[in-house]
Amino acid sequence: MKAPPMPPRRPATGHFPTITEVLRLPVLAEGMPRVLAGESQLDSAVRWVHVTELLNPADFLEGGELVLTTGMPYPEDASELRGYVDQLADVGAAGLIVELGYRYRKVPEELVAACRAREVPLVELARGVRFIDVTQTVHALILDAQGALLRRGREIQDIFTALTLRGADPEELVRTTAELTGAPVVLEDLTHRVLMCELLGRPYEPVVSAWSRRSRAAPTPERITPSGPEGWLIAPVQDHHGLWGRLVLLEGRLNAEPDPEHVLVLEHAAVALTMARLAGPAWWERRAHRSVLRDLYERRFRSPADARARAEALGLPAFGHRLFALVIRHTHTGTESEHLDERIAKALAQTGVRALVGETAPGRIGVLLALAQASAWQPVAERIGRLTREELGPEAVVAVGPGVTDLAGIARSWQEAEQTAEAITPASPERWFYVPADVRLPELLGVLREDTRLQRYAERQLTRLIEHDDRNSGDLLSALRAYLAAAGNKSDAAKRAGMSRQAYYQRLHTIERLLGCDLESGLQRTSLHVAVLVLDAGEAAVPGA
């Protein structure tokens, strides 16, 4: 099922008027409003207007109301005034507007001080206004906003329902959440590791740096309201075992009511992510590791600082550790290789090794190790090699790139590990892993076998010999291989070829005549040896050759 086109985001949709906007309305502006306290909260949303002269207004409020009063019942006792303001603050009233003239010619300083202490917006009206006109005007705006929010809510629900029905991956759900809200979004697990994020083009470093510490300072509230020192909006994500992680919208509206549309988006997105986890096995951690590993290998991060921030947010320490890139090359595509990266990750975690593990390409698994002691890499590489051999058989190859001290150099380490894994064919049953120093001339030529310059070189050197063997069903090429393997020792070469010395010497003479070379020359013998290795590497790459 194809998802319907996403409606354009409309920030004003479902927007409840703020105190500032209400004070600008003509019906209130004629009262010459003046803010006396709570200036930092003037962007709070007004969800209703309530006119009351009671000293216990909290019994009739639910939160978000703008209270209008003439102040007629206010007591002279300062402690009672403070109690009145405490009630408003505790219930979450949006603010208090006092009309002068009936009870007060001036708002009492005790009332101003109490509102400042609790950051409750306090506004005085120097001129009288018709409260009924104020309530009608503001309530009309609120009802319009509620209707618009309901319509927008249905659109948002349709978007996430369509994504759920077609089995959208978690990355798409997170990306859609960010696009609908226009704010960065992070999906984290219970250990506060950033598994997925959509930053809308922002760099990683300022957004996810020191993520674990910042995330722990933002608890998950019972309802979606700004949480923590940065005012994040947070929604829980569940799985079969209960709470699994959190979806975090970095809205940054500290000490203010959240955008109601953002709350709706976050609620529906969290439900969609929960449904995705309940639908079947969810290898989200592996997906996250895979994404970061590929970005590191392909150098897609904007800067080293971005790379460090993203890796650390996923749980890999980048400072004070030696970093090693490992590549596992295998040919399995069935159940043998399925989730091998998960088993490697668990095996490393059991020994306390911090690593990112994930499939980076078909037939390739990448491992990025962070080790406090640089010398510890060999036992870890051996452990990975043993596990790989057990799971995928002796043909799998584990290659380790050189260690680096910063993620800025890990791409080079990765490339060397990849080249080493590609060059080692076949793997030795005596070796659990390989390093770039293990790539010698035969392995190097095997990697370069597709280079047409090498192919032409081998053809020029050996064509006459091959054509002679083809016409006469001969064995001159085999005789040359034996001679080169014996490093020019003719007696040893004759034994390798299984011939008498006389017969073998005749073949060497024929080889020199056909190729116009001197086999006693070390340089010419080396040239022929390279040509034979190139030829053999090309034949080994052809199935059934």
Quick synopsis:
The protein has helices at residues 19-23, 26-29, 78-91, 109-118, 131-165, 170-181, 204-208, 211-216, 260-278, 284-297, 304-313, 340-350, 377-392, 410-423, 441-447, 452-472, 476-485, 490-497, 501-515, 522-540, and strands spanning 33-37, 48-51, 65-69, 95-99, 122-125, 185-189, 194-198, 233-239, 242-249, 322-329, 354-361, 364-371, 397-400.
Question: Outline, from the CA principal axes?
Answer: rod-shaped
* Biggest sheet character: 5 strands, mixed
CATH hierarchy class name of the largest domain: Alpha Beta
Uncertain segments: 1-13
Key attributes of the depicted protein:
alpha+beta, Udp-n-acetylmuramoylalanyl-d-glutamate--2,6- Diaminopimelate Ligase, Chain: A, domain 1, Beta-Lactamase, Alpha-Beta Plaits, 4 domains, 5-stranded mixed beta sheet, 4-stranded antiparallel beta sheet, 20 helices, 13 strands, 14% strand
Describe this structure in words.
By secondary structure, the protein is an alpha+beta fold. It has four domains: 121 residues, 3-Layer(aba) Sandwich (Udp-n-acetylmuramoylalanyl-d-glutamate--2,6- Diaminopimelate Ligase, Chain: A, domain 1); 115 residues, Beta-Lactamase; 155 residues, Alpha-Beta Plaits, CATH 3.30.70.120; 94 residues, no CATH class. 47% of the residues lie in helices and 14% in strands. The protein contains 20 helices and 13 strands. The strands form three sheets. Strands 1-5-4-3-2 form a five-stranded mixed β-sheet. The chain has a four-stranded antiparallel β-sheet with strand order 7-6-9-8. A four-stranded antiparallel β-sheet has the order 11-12-10-13, sandwiched between helices. Strand 6 and strand 7 form a beta hairpin. Helix 6 packs antiparallel against helix 9, helix 16 crosses helix 20 and helix 17 crosses helix 18.
